[in-house]
TrEMBL record:
UniProt-annotated stretches for the region Disordered: 32-55, 208-232
Organism taxonomic ancestry: Bacteria, Bacillati, Actinomycetota, Actinomycetes, Kitasatosporales
Organism whose genome encodes this protein: Streptomyces huasconensis
Protein name (database record): ABC transporter substrate-binding protein
The entry's keywords: Signal
Compositional bias segments (type: Basic and acidic residues): 212-224
CDD domains: PBP2_clavulanate_OppA2
PANTHER family per the UniProt record, alphabetical: ABC TRANSPORTER SUBSTRATE-BINDING PROTEIN (PTHR30290:SF83), PERIPLASMIC BINDING COMPONENT OF ABC TRANSPORTER (PTHR30290)
Keyword Signal on entry: yes
The UniProt record lists the keyword Nucleus: no
Length: 577
């Protein structure tokens, strides 16, 4: 993503359900399914109320404004899209599958034209039919300035998208001519460049149908018309309290993904993280049938839970496509010298970094930029093998070759936020490791907003800093392109190409991979490109996070996919009293 407003969403990708939603995901039951919630056969039963306890309110509950991966967690209970994530455990859950559409779209030979057909019998909560014109209008309203906040890809990919300002300013009444609806069930997209991963993009909530006659602009979020299994019956304090009840016109016959077991979903936000975990651990009253979609167990909490066999059986474990790393600015000395960057790569002690991140239960070592999952095209490599504890001897040799035989003094910029990712604990671990290689590290800690502004500024970007990146969908494309495509360097906004790499060979390969509609073949190419870029030592991959989240004792049918890394609320059932 390349919008400044999206920085916070990126940073929160590890914990906020709007973005989340990931190694194979697992949970308390090795099969990924809890005990059944009713019936002698152990099958999940319909009924009851599922409570969701969260820190962050579900603000901007308008499909145009949400920035989601795979349709989001809570949002996808209300908003259906052309495609969606596969609601299965582990690697199978990283696949994209049809939702409103009959298939994943039919691309033209060069992947610049995509055609989708809607399923028959689709209805809104009021019983009216869902049409292709509604999908087109739902996309068009996401271009309106007052409804900004969603993913920027459509603005870049659709012909004329860079100039379109949304339906409220469209005097022609024709909307985006690059989206055609020849009949009520067909929608055709015309792109300005080949995009083989368009089916992934079609999982974003901007592809939610919105009938023009029901649009209320910025007030639409108060009661968006449901196309999913649940409808909004209450939205208090801008998403702090959401109450969802069954959409009587949703049909499971048209929706193979959402199970919709509970009768009611009660989302309560604005809670402290420690309070959420305390309530889930106690599992008293309504909290026994509660989950969280945005709160992890911290190191101290995890230690307590691990020592309690009953509590440990109610912990879901998952992996999301996310990498924490050291970033270099090669325009700042001495990081303009590849040997210095390589020396630092050798000097890093990943064991100490992982301990600072909460231990091996919450972080896994990384030597590749792409996450270690098949869907990303993960290709194993370690260009600067340092072992688990670093290789200070090799680092000193490289520093000597670079003319720094007496050592080196550098500055490492980090955030003061206690996030166990870019925070002081991680920075101190790096500082201690580099000292063994003769590198003196001065720490520059910044408040969260100042930190984000500085590391994404072309003019102010520091020479060395802690950073991280999460995927908009489980593929190498949204991981590598924003960081390493030279055409995505942004000089007057939020820049994510922190190494300022503008290599024609890399840019060309990105274009060639984007032409592929065979997603497995594309994944293999993304992995090979990651390995090639890794040789340039523009980043030092440190670790991939692991998500540990409690759920109440009466919550069953746990599904955690590699797409989101967290419990999927569309699958859970609750025990009936």
């Amino acid at each position: 993503m390349r919008q400044a407003s999206a920085i916070a969403r990126r940073v929160a990708a590890a914990s906020v359900s709007l973005v989340l939603a990931s190694g194979a995901a697992a949970c308390a039951d090795p099969k990924g399914n809890g005990a059944g919630s009713g019936g002698d056969d152990g099958e999940p039963a319909k009924g009851g109320t599922l409570t969701v306890l969260n820190r962050d309110p579900q603000t901007d509950f308008d499909p145009a404004r949400l920035y989601t991966s795979g349709g989001g967690n809570i949002p996808s209970l209300v908003f259906r899209t052309l495609t969606t994530r596969n609601r299965e455990d582990g690697a199978k859950g990283a696949e994209v599958v049809p939702d409103l559409a009959t298939d994943l779209g039919r691309p033209s030979k060069n992947a610049t034209v995509w055609t989708f057909t809607l399923k028959k019998g689709l209805k809104y909560e009021d019983g009216s039919p869902i049409t292709s014109a509604d999908v087109k209008y739902g996309i068009e309203r996401s271009f309106a300035a007052e409804l900004s906040g969603g993913a920027p890809y459509l603005r870049d990919w659709l012909i004329g998208g860079d100039k379109y300002q949304g339906p409220y300013k469209d005097k022609s009444g024709k909307g985006l001519t690059s989206i055609e609806t020849p009949d009520e069930r067909t929608i055709v997209f015309h792109l300005n460049k080949p995009e083989g991963e368009f089916p992934y993009l079609a999982t974003q909530t901007q592809f939610t149908p919105v009938p023009k006659s029901k649009d209320k602009g910025t007030k639409y979020e108060e009661h968006p018309l449901s196309s999913g299994p649940y409808k909004v019956v209450a939205n208090e304090n801008d998403g702090e309290r959401l109450r969802l009840e069954r959409n009587p016109h949703w049909s499971a016959a048209t929706d193979a993904e959402r199970k919709a077991y509970p009768d009611t979903i009660d989302v309560r936000s604005g809670l402290d993280s420690s309070v959420i975990n305390q309530r889930l651990a106690a599992s008293q009253g309504a909290d026994a049938a509660a989950v969280t979609t945005d709160t992890n167990l911290g190191p101290a909490e995890l230690a307590k839970v691990t020592g309690d066999k009953e509590l440990a059986s109610h912990v879901g474990t998952g992996h999301f496509g996310y990498t924490n790393y050291l970033a270099f600015n090669p325009k700042v000395k001495p990081f303009d010298d590849p040997k210095v960057r390589q020396a630092i790569s050798y000097a890093v002690d990943r064991s100490s970094v992982i301990n600072a991140a909460g231990g091996s239960s919450l972080a896994e070592p990384a030597t590749t930029y792409l996450p270690n999952q098949k869907s990303f095209g993960h290709t194993k490599y370690d260009h600067f093998p340092a072992g688990p504890n670093g290789n200070p001897k090799k680092a000193r040799e490289l520093l000597k070759e670079a003319g720094h035989q007496d050592g080196l003094t550098i500055t490492l910029t980090h955030s003061n936020a206690k996030d166990f990712e870019t925070s002081p604990e991680i920075a101190t671990a790096i500082q201690d490791a580099l000292k063994k290689a003769g590198i003196t590290v001065k720490l520059e800690g910044l408040e969260e907003n100042d930190y984000a502004d500085k590391i994404h500024s072309v003019e102010d970007e520091p020479g060395l800093f802690l950073s991280h990146w999460g995927a908009d969908w489980p593929s190498g494309g949204p991981f590598l392109a924003p960081i390493f495509d030279g055409r995505q360097i942004v000089k007057d906004g939020a820049n994510f190409n922190t190494g300022f790499l503008d290599d024609k060979a890399v840019n060309d390969e990105i274009d060639e991979i984007n032409k592929l509609t065979d997603l497995d073949a594309a994944a293999e190419r993304w992995g090979a490109l990651d390995k090639k870029i890794g040789e340039k030592a523009l980043t030092v991959p440190l670790f991939h996070p692991v998500y540990k989240r409690l759920y109440g004792k009466d919550v069953h049918n746990i599904v955690i996919s590699d797409w989101t890394g967290v419990l999927d609320v569309s699958q859970v059932a609750v025990k009936q009293s």
